Amino acid sequence: MNIYDIAKLSGVSIATVSRVVNGSEKVSEKTRSKVLDIIRQEGYTPNVFAQGLGIGTMHTVGILVPTISDQYMAKCVSYLEDQLTVHGYDCILSCSGFSIEGKEARTQMLLSKHIDALVFVGSTYSGSGESVEETDYIREAAKQAPVFIINGYVKGDNVFCRLCDDRTAMREAVGALLAHGRKDILFLTDSRSYSAREKTAGCIEALEGAGIPVRDEMFLHTENRIHAVRDYLLSINPVFDAAVATDDGIAIGAVKFAQEKGLSVPGDLCVIGYNNSSLAVACNPELTSIDSRAELLCRETIDNILAILHGDASIPACSIQPGRLISRKTTDF
Amino acid sequence: MNIYDIAKLSGVSIATVSRVVNGSEKVSEKTRSKVLDIIRQEGYTPNVFAQGLGIGTMHTVGILVPTISDQYMAKCVSYLEDQLTVHGYDCILSCSGFSIEGKEARTQMLLSKHIDALVFVGSTYSGSGESVEETDYIREAAKQAPVFIINGYVKGDNVFCRLCDDRTAMREAVGALLAHGRKDILFLTDSRSYSAREKTAGCIEALEGAGIPVRDEMFLHTENRIHAVRDYLLSINPVFDAAVATDDGIAIGAVKFAQEKGLSVPGDLCVIGYNNSSLAVACNPELTSIDSRAELLCRETIDNILAILHGDASIPACSIQPGRLISRKTTDF
DNA sequence: TTGTATGCGTTATCAA
DNA sequence: TTGATAACGCATACAA
Are residues B205 and B304 both part of a single domain? Predict the structure, then answer.
């Protein structure tokens, strides 16, 4: 069932059918309803490939995440997908993994679909910070479609970053721990992403601000799996009275460590997580965590995508939202 | 840059370029390498819309979930996406919500993209069990592409269901509780889906098998949010010494209830969750949970999709995998 | 207001 | 082994 069939059945030309389908004003009411009847009756839908071929787009936005089985990514995708659909865009999701090859391959795949915009979710897309070239593929992609990065920073034409101010959030969190008498802070991270580097910097700023010497042993790199973190801490048995982590899962590993060692939380050990996921609430005691404002960043991104696709060029390359400390039971404040 | 440009630059016809691109045997080695050089040099990629128009497919599989911010769905999508990509298929993800309108609309959207197969993830797609018509849209969709349902049951031509034996898993779990001396079992659920109905049936079978009268008050319907469950239980204050839930989040709500009431877990109250998500490990005490074998069901689905797309028609309409009880610290067995 | 004709970039058929 | 050409289904410029 194609446009020719509908035209024939309606006794009009394909141009008229096309006009009706696309809601053109230049059709008489009589013709419109006649054609519409046939269309409904036959259950006709335009062939998206033919449409795409002609106009060069399929009204689709590509979304790239390293993995979807991470609560932060899932939350973002959920929001993005919902809002894009509301506004008439469909989504192609791709999970790139963390390797540069995966990222480049999936980006190419999405571009080959002539998407209208590309959203990268996650700090991993900023690269490790070791070289500028590692994000070249993003600038390259931005030549073909506007690129948005949620919680990541990449500089380039047509590249728009929507960030949470992880550095300040972390500085304030660590500052609060210090202000409440904690001396030995442990900083736990699972990546070297832009976001992780910002969080680290914030932590260091807080320590320096309090005149506390910054030692290497305070910064631990670990896997983001609760038991792995716990066992790692048990194996190296560090002395500390507070832990901040770059993700809730890691933080909960520290809580489990404390419980294994018979340490009270938050009495002997304060713990602060990041991302304010449902893990924070599942945990016991419930985890104090920094909300990195995923929904807010996504909402902004959606607004901007719609604006840019409607021809509004006045969009800031970068915007930063403050994080928010959600106090629960693993801190005494 | 299209096939004509490449043809011109290579000094051959578009037919030959097409053959080279599609790896046809009927091209001389000399021509092939010449064309390939130009293609690489110009960075040419075939236009997917034109390809789709011609051959009627874009090598794409549609994935439908009610929501992606649910660990079970996320895990499934993660696995499906990965494996499909490995095998040369791209994914279009759509989140339908739980309403029938949303499900139908998103199904139509995916079908309009001429996908090669459609995967529904989640028991919600079986409908509420109140009428057969509510799943008609799935049978309708199956006329256009093979339909797979993960953890849901719908009968129809070209509809394939990959299920976990929730009923048996639940019967055995409740049976184990009874065998270990528990008398007052509470069954907590957040939906009326096929899976929830199977789990309920399994619970009832276990009770009846043990000669325990089945009372309405044993079955509670609640929201799937930890604090909501906890508060609900606090508000009705039921007497029970064991709880089984249809999802980990709900089960953890019961654990929180016990902690609020000063009940020991598992001493005073045993709790068993479902889906064996990371919440189960985040929880303290860590949650005993039934693993519903998401990865296994997905693996089977992928194998079947590939087989069917390669013309293998010998695929069972339905397959059932046993669930698996993962014992942790909220049970005494 | 409606219709005709053309282009969009492939794949595939049929000749050569 | 290669090339010319006809689909594929739609949008749209232009003509009527």
Answer: no
Whether residue B135 sits in one domain with residue B250: no
Sign of CA dihedral B270, B74, B142, B303: negative
User: Are B273 and B252 contacting, i.e. CB atoms less than 8 angstroms apart?
Assistant: yes
B328 domain residue, yes or no: no
Domain assignment present for residue B223? The answer is: yes
Instruction: State the pLDDT confidence band at B195, using cuts at 50, 70 and 90.
Output: very high
Nearest-by-CA chain A residue for B108: A45
What is the per-residue pLDDT for A129?
Answer: 86
The radius of gyration of chain A's CA atoms, rounded to the nearest angstrom, is 25
Q: Which residues contact B328 (CB under 8 A, 6 or more apart)?
A: B280, B281, B285, B286, B287, B288, B289
Containing structural domain, residue B13? 3-52
Do both A155 and A254 map to the same domain? Answer: no
What pairing do the DSSP bridges indicate for beta strands B288-291 and B324-326?
antiparallel
Same domain flag for B183 and B271: yes
For residues B21 and B89, state if they share a domain: no
Same domain, yes or no, for B99 and B160?
Answer: yes
| pTM (two decimals) | 0.94
pLDDT at B24: 87
Note whether residue A32 is domain-resident: yes
pLDDT band at B312 (very low <50, low <70, confident <90, very high): confident
The arithmetic mean of pLDDT across residues B120-136, rounded, is 94
Task: Assign residue A21 the CATH number of its domain.
Answer: 1.10.260.40
**Two tokens, residue B162:** 């990959």
DSSP assignment, residue B139? H
Domain shared by A64 and A152, yes or no: yes
Enumerate the residues of chain A whose CB falls inside 8 A of the CB of residue B91.
92-94
Comparing CA positions, the residue from A103, A32, A29, A91 lying closest to residue A66 is: A103
Contact A68 B81 (CB under 8 A): yes
The pLDDT > 70 percentage for chain A reads 100
Domain count within chain A: 3
Contact map slice: B 33-72 vs A, CB within 8 A: 45, 47-50, 52-53, 56, 58, 67-71
Measured CA to C1', the nucleotide nearest A19 is D11
Q: Which residue has the tokens 């992780």?
A: A196
Q: Which of A48, A91, A284 sits opposite B259 (nearest CB)?
A: A284
pLDDT band at B183 (very low <50, low <70, confident <90, very high): very high
Subunit contact A74:B69, Cβ cutoff 8 A: yes
Q: Are the Cβ atoms of A283 and B281 closer than 8 angstroms?
A: no
Q: Do A255 and B69 touch (CB under 8 A)?
A: no
Q: How many residue contacts between A and B have a Cβ separation below 8 Å?
A: 128
Residue A265, domain member (yes or no):
yes
Residue A149 belongs to domain with CATH number: 3.40.50.2300
**Nearest-neighbour CA in chain B from A261: distance (Å):** 15
